[in-house]
Amino acid sequence: MLTLVTEEKKRYLPLLLLGDEQESMIDRYLEEGALYIWKEGEETAGVCVVVDQGDGVLELKNIAVAPRFQRRGIGRAMIEALAKRYRGRYRVLLAGTGEAPSTLGFYQHCGFTYSHRVKDFFLQYDHPIVEEGVQLKDMVYFQRTLEP
What we know:
alpha+beta; Aminopeptidase; 4 helices; 23% helix
């Protein structure tokens, strides 16, 4: 179940760093965003952060599942729970990611379609971001309509 966290959000930094490798980048959205955790038993298995971008757009800024809980459908379950929670309040759920093949496939399997890209976004990080052997450069945005 997805649970909103309103205090001490930084205690989830180790998990958040799985979804966004640089703490200063996380700091840009963590306080203004809504942080949710997903628990499996007593353990926090996943985290996600969404931010209101205005004009009916909610952006998924970070989503991560702890390695020992990956490949169990938790990421998809978090997205479905967000879609259900925000349906009727927002038109679109937007998600930006790098071009790693498995990540692109994940969003497509969760009902997202290509929206746009931001050139050289990942080059502003203080170190190269590499996923699945690919150095990330552009941020690729996907969107999913949130039915009323």
